[in-house]
Design a protein that fits this description.
Layout: E1 2-10, H1 15-27, E2 36-43, E3 54-60, H2 63-71, H3 73-85, E4 86-95
Antiparallel strand pairs: 1-3, 1-4, 2-3
Length: 96
């Protein structure tokens, strides 16, 4: 199994609205992308100096499944919007 974790920091303009929109867009992806086994999106509540605003945790059967997700048009649509409204992202991919 492959686990894909991404954390995002959003621009200040329309921050709350954009976080919720991205969360909704991400949570709609499992119905559209067959290789995506599970997905969870969480919004930070602590708002500390070290905090990111949103985290995505998703799972795939294997690396090929992750790659299929990465290039899928539905995912690319979400990525395009995320790039417009975020200032930073971090990612970790690992196998378990």
């Amino acid at each position: 199994m492959v686990v894909h974790i991404v954390m995002f920091r959003f621009e200040d303009e329309n921050k709350s609205e954009n976080i919720e929109k991205v969360k909704e867009m991400l949570e709609a992806l499992p119905e559209k992308i067959p290789s995506l086994r599970s997905m969870e999106a969480g919004v930070d509540f602590l708002h500390s100096e070290r905090s990111m605003d949103l985290v995505l945790t998703s799972t795939f059967d294997d690396r090929d499944g992750l790659e299929a997700y990465r290039v899928h048009p539905a995912h690319q649509e979400v990525v395009a919007f995320i790039k417009e409204v975020t200032v930073e992202s971090r990612v970790v991919d690992y196998e378990r």
